[in-house]
Design brief:
Blueprint (H helix, E strand, L loop, with lengths): L1 E6 L3 H10 L7 E7 L2 H10 L4 E5 L7 H11 L4 E6 L4 H9 L4 E4 L4 H22 L2 H10 L1 H14 L5 H10 L10 E8 L8 H19 L4 E6 L4 E7 L7 H23 L3 E5 L10 H16 L6 E3 L13 H4 L4 H6 L3 H19 L3 H21 L4 H5 L1 H8 L6 H40 L7 H8 L3 H12 L3 H19 L4 H7 L5 H12 L3 H6 L1
Parallel strand pairs: 1-2, 1-3, 3-4, 4-5, 9-10
Antiparallel strand pairs: 6-8, 6-9, 7-8
Helix pairs in contact: 2-3, 9-10, 14-18, 15-18, 18-19, 18-20
Length: 538
């Protein structure tokens, strides 16, 4: 859907084009109106407008000056000029400003529709080109560090990966890692000195330590690093393919990690604790377990002491944490519910209960862990919508709160899916009710201000919504575009007043917000097939 703006200092011209052209059939979602170049620029600052149709001669900023400004500030916006003067100089300047077309007033509807369709086709081609593989790859390169960090954080917290999907992402991000690679983890914990700085400075220190690590490890190992949720710098170290002596590789790794610790103190004047893990061939499937073990080792052996250097568990001795991993893997249930991604939330719950069944059986403690986390997610979403979970879930929530209804995985599963369905239905109902309230506010405002400014922008300002959102909501709830509703309402009001015989035609025109009576008569005849006078006499 496209956004379009009409610019002309004559209201009759703007209103004529706004109502007579079937914009919604052309895929135009919103038609903005401006009576001057200055007003048009203000609208362009506030809204993303794709097509501007402007008159040439206007007080203040002319149409040509407006287009020149648009070309400089909004390069993606296409401009069409309207003029009552077939002068070569105007046409020449229009071409110089890359105007899409130059139409003479009075413009025929068919001609304008043809030009708008052609401009839309051009916009579509440009968007397709912008989203081509070449542009996509360039965007990836521009954001390579961030994307690499995000992927590594995912690998540290997820158990299962589809091999081909991961291989594609690694290749796209130019990371020379492959499944089965021999890898080790090194954790670097920044300590008290660094926390005396603000967030920006702290991030710069993290970045600097990552750079030092890259310099030290270069020529020995491959390196990929990120900051985790504990504010630890996590280094994923890759052994060279030719390395055969594991003990020697471990010794080099520990030596380089110790050098990193010393370099941070020497160059950045702060201390860090370091945990060096053991080599494993479990990339990527075993990475989460190795990471959890590394964090646990650092916490148990280093504690709150500063400048500690510890080594991790040996291969084969990693202790699996007895936690419900699926419950805490991103995306979290809370975030899926908040975003309204109900199918994914359902799949998340299914995976949690599958893990409960397969790993923990009927462990009462793990059932309680799952319940409290799931219930907290439901409560969070309910509270975000100004509701209590007990009001939504009814007796099911009351029973579970008493603690006697959820002793088995089956009971928890039934409660969770039943409660989620109630939360979903309540959320959908609330959204629908809110939209209905917006429609009522729109119609009340239009009814009260029919003789004044009832443009989409004016109504949007009144209800405090973006015009595009307002237009979508109105069409979704009523099945009728806002402009169609306004046109129908005006014509029905006109017909009623004409039948009552109380008002003259020009008075009805003014009462309906038409400043130009002949234009009102034209619109009335288009709607009813008769002029106002003919309608009154019939």
């Amino acid at each position: 859907m496209y956004q379009l703006m009409l610019v002309d200092d004559e209201d009759a011209v703007i209103e004529g084009l706004a109502i007579t052209i079937p914009w919604d059939q052309l895929g135009i979602e919103t038609v903005y109106k401006a009576n001057s170049g200055r007003e048009a620029l203000k609208l362009l600052e506030k809204h993303s407008i794709d097509i501007v149709i402007t008159d040439i001669r206007m007080p203040g900023i002319s149409g040509l000056e407006l287009i020149e400004t648009i070309r400089a500030k909004w390069k993606g916006t296409k401009c069409i000029l309207l003029s009552g003067f077939a002068e070569f100089e105007y046409a020449k300047q229009a071409l110089e400003n890359e105007t899409e077309d130059y139409l003479l007033k009075p413009v025929e509807d068919e001609d304008l529709i043809r030009v708008v369709r052609r401009v839309q086709d051009k916009l579509k081609r440009e968007w397709e080109e912008a989203s081509s593989r070449r542009r996509t790859l360039q965007t990836v390169r521009d954001h390579l560090p961030l994307l690499r960090t995000q992927l590594l954080k995912e690998l540290l917290t997820r158990s299962h990966w589809e091999e081909r999907n991961l291989a594609d992402r690694l290749a796209l991000l130019e990371l020379p890692f492959t499944p089965g690679d021999r890898c080790a983890l090194v954790l670097v914990r920044l300590e008290e000195h660094f926390y005396d700085y603000n967030n920006r400075s702290f991030s710069l220190f993290q970045y600097a330590i990552g750079n030092i690590a890259e310099e030290l490890f270069a020529g020995h190992f491959g390196l990929w690093h990120c900051m985790d949720d504990h504010d630890y710098l996590v280094l994923l170290v890759q052994a060279p393919a030719a390395a055969e002596n594991a003990a020697e590789a471990q010794a080099i790794l520990e030596r380089l990690a110790a050098q990193l610790q010393k370099s941070v103190k020497l160059y950045l004047k702060g201390t860090v604790s370091v945990m060096v893990g053991q080599w494993t061939n479990a990339f990527p499937q075993g990475l989460r377990l190795a990471y959890e073990d590394a964090v646990g080792v650092l916490l148990r052996r280093a504690g709150n002491e500063s400048e500690m250097f510890v080594t991790g568990s040996v291969p084969g001795q990693l202790i699996e944490v007895m936690a419900l991993h699926t419950l805490y893997e991103p995306p979290l249930l809370m975030h899926l519910l908040e975003a309204g991604r109900w199918d994914e939330a359902k799949a998340k719950l299914s995976a949690v209960f599958r893990e409960l069944d397969e790993r923990f059986g009927e462990s009462a403690e793990h059932i309680r862990e799952a319940y409290y986390t799931i219930a907290a997610s439901f409560s969070y979403v309910a509270h975000k919508h100004q509701r209590l979970l007990a009001d939504i879930a009814g007796s099911a929530e009351d029973d579970s709160r008493e603690g006697y209804a959820l002793r088995t995985v089956r009971q928890l599963r039934e409660w969770a899916f039943r409660t989620m369905e109630k939360v979903r239905e309540d959320t959908i109902r609330e959204v629908k009710d809110a939209r209905a309230d917006v429609v009522r506010m729109i119609q009340q405002y239009v009814e009260r201000h029919l003789d004044g400014d009832v443009s989409l922008q004016a109504v949007a300002d009144y209800v405090h919504f973006h015009p595009v959102y307002l237009s979508k909501v109105y069409k979704m709830e009523t099945g009728e575009a806002f402009t169609e509703y306004l046109y129908r309402l005006r014509m029905n009001k006109a017909a009623f007043w004409l039948k009552s015989g109380t008002y003259k035609v020009y008075e009805i025109s003014e009462m309906l917000g038409y400043q130009n009576t002949p234009y009102f008569i034209k619109k009335f005849k288009k709607y009813f097939g008769k002029t106002p006078q003919e309608y009154r006499e019939s």
